[in-house]
Amino acid sequence: IGAIDSKHAVLFDLATNGLVRVTVGSSPVQITSGPTSVAAASTFIGFTTPSVGFAIVPGQSSPNHLWRTTDGGQTWSVVTF
Questions:
Q1: How far apart are the first and last CA of the chain?
Q2: pLDDT tens digits, residue range 12-60?
Q3: Which of 71, 59, 53 is closest to 2 using CA atoms?
Q4: Sheet-wide strand order for 64-69
Q5: 27 C-beta neighbours (distance < 10 Å), count
C-alpha cells in the first residue's frame, strides 16, 4: 500500500492482479495504465508528494521495473534509464 495522503492510497489488488486507487468512502478504482500481472509479494509503492509516486514492480516473467505517476496514481509509466 502506498499512501497518497490521509484519504487516498494505491495498492496491489490480488483479485484483479493489478493496482487500484482507493479513496475513503468510495469504491476502489482499477488503474488501467499501470503494471499488471505482477508478483505482489515484492511490490513497493510510495509517494513523495500527493501527485508524484513510484512503484517497483517485478513482472511474472520479466525483470523489475520502476514505474512513476505524476497524477496521484491515476496513470503510471515505466521510468527509462
A1: 25
A2: 887 877 889 999 999 998 888 877 665 555 678 999 999 999 988 776 5
A3: 53
A4: 44-47, 53-58, 64-69, 77-78
A5: 7
Tell me how far apart the alpha carbons of residues 60 and 48 are, in angstroms, rounded to a whole number: 27
Contact 31, 19 (CB under 8 A): yes
The three three-digit cell numbers of residue 50, written as one number: 500527493
Instruction: Assign 45 to helix, strand or coil.
Output: strand
Pairing of strands 53-58, 44-47: antiparallel
Give how far Cα 74 sits from Cα of 31, 37, 44, Å: 6, 18, 17
Query: pTM for the complete prediction?
Result: 0.79
